[in-house]
Design goal:
10 helices; 12 strands; 6-stranded parallel sheet; alpha/beta; Rossmann fold; 325 residues; binds beta-D-fucofuranose
Length: 325
Amino acid sequence: MYIVKRLRLFALLVAAVLLTGCTKAAEEANDPELLLGFSQVGSESAWRIGNTKDIENSAAQYGVSLMFENANQSQENQIAAIRRFIAYKVDVIAFSPIVEDGWDNVLMEAKEAGIPVVLVDRTIETEKEDLTACLIGADFYNEGVMAAEYLIRKADSLGLDHVNIVEITGTENSTPMLQRQAGFADTIADDERMHILESIDGDFLKSRGAECMRYLLETYGDDIDVVYSHNDEMTLGALPEIEKTDMIPGRDIIIISIDGGQEAIDVLKEGKINCVVECTPNLGSELMETALKLKEGEPVDAVIHPTEQVFSDEMDVSTIGPRGY
Ligand code: GYE
């Protein structure tokens, strides 16, 4: 009898715990802690797809309800998405601006609506104050510096006294394009061996990377010693074009890329890319934590940069683990 009573009591307790748990979960589903509107640039690269996946997974993990909009490479679409977020009265808006300028009007509207805005991945150019709360993204200038420092070490080790570089840049007027270019140019500026033959816009796309490389090979042929490409996709587009000539990428032309996605790392391991500067797309958990703080009116850091590394033929590349994007 005593045991039966104890069992009953235990069962009641379990049911009570389960019920409160369920009610809480149901409450959270109906009334999530935070409604976040996020406007993504597009799906142009493995980096971007990895970034989208990470943001979606992090939202689920933090119990954040995510309104996700893909702008398919158009600033107009991004502006329209931000206006929809404002009309919907989301708690926080986040977006990765495709280019740096042209955001003042829509961001003034968000400010007037009292909705904080987080910049993810890329920044904006504005003269107005306090349009955005913070930036969570890579230090692109430093990525350019790391790419150039690798090149200087490589030129030293090969004993090169004249180095002709072609640069395939990302989307014109986007933060990674501007900063990766500036960091690289500033770092090679004092090295008299280094000459940039031409910088050409590859828009972060594989097809454009191939087109640019065809043009560069037609124009400069085997004068090219180095290809500095602002992302893996353009690099992966350029390599087959080099292979159509009698030059071997990674041996006759030094190939430097940025992002560090799986495909590029596999090609680095094959020896056709010499150096890949990492740019991590995993910004989701920082975004969720920041958005939750903003909703509560708590202070946030103005800039959050993830730490990044360089993968290159100076190291034992077989030790590089799976990249996840
Ligand atoms: O390098 C490129 C992408 O903004 C860091 O955009 C990002 C860049 C990334 O499409 O692959």
